[in-house]
Design a protein that fits this description.
Elements: E1 4-10, E2 15-21, E3 29-35, E4 42-43, E5 50-51, E6 57-61, E7 71-78, E8 84-88, E9 92-95, E10 112-119, E11 125-126, E12 133-134, E13 142-148, E14 160-161, E15 168-177, E16 183-193, E17 196-198, E18 201-202, E19 209-216, E20 222-223, E21 230-237, E22 244-250, E23 259-260, E24 263-265, E25 267-268, E26 273-282, E27 289-295, E28 307-310, E29 319-321, E30 323-330, E31 336-338, E32 347-349, E33 357-364, H1 367-378, E34 383-386, E35 397-408, E36 416-424, H2 439-445, H3 449-455, H4 459-463
Antiparallel strand pairs: 1-2, 2-6, 3-4, 3-5, 3-7, 7-27, 8-15, 9-15, 10-13, 10-15, 11-14, 12-13, 16-26, 17-24, 18-23, 19-22, 19-26, 20-25, 21-22, 28-29, 28-34, 30-33, 31-32, 33-36, 34-35, 35-36
Length: about 475
């Protein structure tokens, strides 16, 4: 099932409702971004980690979209799990002949398969199997290939060129979940010795899995674990008269080892021979799915209140208002002028000017509406004023209220006004996201689960409900 992203404007609290469906079921969260030009993208409020269940999720966009123009939305889905080993297939050997190392057990779509293939003859070449990709670096006779598992995949046919009869060759495949393609961190060639020296490397990405691939032009009976590594795979190969060994170790992602220090590990049995060591690194795969959608939100013409007054912390308090007057904005200076004895000119200590300050006069048709607006401002949260179009005389702006005055309009005996003195403020962090409907609301609105089911056809209907519950301390 392909990822689907839809968006629709709902005027109940001035939100664009974004629905995600058909995402990769491995994904447990999505990131939703907004753009007006498809060049600059920003996460919407609450959009950095949208929970996905069975490939579906939902988030609302309140502040930042513009009425009357095309708004674009982009979604990317992710699996928050760390890279984890799945299994390894059997170690397969041959005498200078084609091998077909079996796939590990327990594979599912999306698992990263890594094949380690070596040939005893350093002049030989391990050819890339059909459908696989070679990891850059290393030597031609000691190769690593990878492929993302797709159901129906079979064991690769690993062929060689440049070898001779009697040369041992070998290979095996390991698989990992939630991993992107392996990258070579370092490669080292060693002179003849009993033990095998390996290089060091470092990454900044958290929770990597390091894979240490060692090869020796000799057989043996065992090898010690390199510091910080475990889970040895591979083995000692005597399929041909000329032996070799092909072994890997790995670190655990949970250990968060970002630096591997160069060292060596002891090998038992066999005799001194040349060896090589390769460090590979696995990190969490990128977005599993991505998609875009767009819409041009339009305010319903039936409503005479064209401006949205929104509370990013409490979206249930969003309300449409009519602005009767906007007292021009001002910006105060933060400059000190100091007169110095014996000097004609003063010393100036300057800084950036303050943000804009302004006043809004909002129409209220009755005293009860005026008191309701007063209560919304009394909450004290940063607010967002959204105009009906991107070309409106009033700018979209975030602000905090410094004073709120409620009075009866002298020109209209039945009308009231709410005058708000405000100072422009920074946009609240996108992680600040208020729930529109909580479990407390469910409990308050319904006596039993039967009542919930009777009143709502789906869980989406419950999620889409709007809570107006708020407590203002007098």
């Amino acid at each position: 099932m392909a990822l689907t992203l839809t968006s629709a404007y709902n005027d109940d609290i001035g939100r664009v409702q974004i629905t995600i469906s058909g995402a990769n079921t491995d994904a447990d969260y999505a990131k939703v971004e907004h753009s007006l030009d498809q060049i600059t993208w920003k996460s919407i409020r609450g959009g950095d980690t949208v929970t996905l269940i069975a490939g579906a999720g939902h988030v609302d966009h309140y502040d930042g979209f513009v009425f009357g123009v095309t708004n674009y939305y982009r979604v990317s889905t992710f699996d928050s799990a760390l890279v984890q080993p799945v299994a390894s297939g059997a170690y397969t050997t041959a005498n200078n002949a084609t091998i077909a190392p079996p796939l590990p057990a327990g594979l599912v779509a999306g698992h990263m398969m890594i094949a380690y293939v070596t040939h005893r003859n350093t002049a030989a070449t391990c050819n890339t199997p059909a459908g696989w990709t070679a990891v850059a670096g290393g030597d031609s006779h000691m190769k690593v290939f990878y492929r993302v598992y797709v159901p129906g995949d079979t064991a690769p046919s690993c062929t060689f060129s440049g070898g001779s009869a009697g040369d041992s060759c070998s290979g095996f495949i390991s698989a990992y979940s939630n991993a992107k393609a392996p990258v070579q961190g370092a490669f080292q060639v060693n002179g003849s010795a009993q033990d095998v020296a390996y290089p060091g490397a470092a990454v900044t990405t958290p929770n990597p899995v390091w894979l240490l691939h060692e090869w020796k032009q000799q057989t043996g009976t065992g090898a010690s674990l390199p510091a910080g590594f475990g889970d040895p795979k591979g083995g000692f190969n005597t399929a041909g008269a000329n032996p070799e060994s092909n072994i890997t170790w790995r670190t655990a992602s949970e250990a968060d080892i970002r630096t591997v220090t160069a060292s060596s590990n002891s090998w038992q049995g066999g005799s001194a021979a040349i060896s090589k060591a390769r460090l590979l690194v696995l990190t969490v795969r990128d977005a599993l799915d991505s998609g875009t959608t767009n819409l041009a939100p339009v305010l319903p013409s039936a409503n005479t209140n064209p401006y949205w007054l929104k509370n990013p912390n409490r979206p249930g308090q969003n309300v449409r208002v009519e602005i009767m007057d906007l007292i021009p904005t001002t910006r105060d200076g933060r400059t000190g002028v100091f007169q110095i004895l014996g000097r004609s000119f003063p010393v100036v200590v300057s800084d950036l000017m303050t943000s804009r300050s302004f006043s809004l006069v909002i129409d209220a048709p009755s005293k009860s509406v005026a008191k309701d607006l007063e209560g919304r401002f009394a909450i004290g949260n940063p607010m967002y004023l959204q105009p009906p179009s991107g070309t409106d005389d009033v700018d979209a702006i975030y602000f905090v209220t410094t004073q709120c005055k409620v009075e009866q309009d002298e020109k209209q005996s039945l009308g009231w006004t709410v005058t708000v003195d405000a100072i422009e403020c920074a946009m609240p962090n996108p992680a600040v996201y208020g729930d529109t409907y909580t479990w407390s609301d469910v409990i308050a609105n319904y006596a039993t689960w039967s009542d919930v089911i009777a009143a709502n056809a789906t869980w989406s209907d419950v999620i889409d409900k709007v809570s107006t519950t708020v407590i203002v301390v007098p």
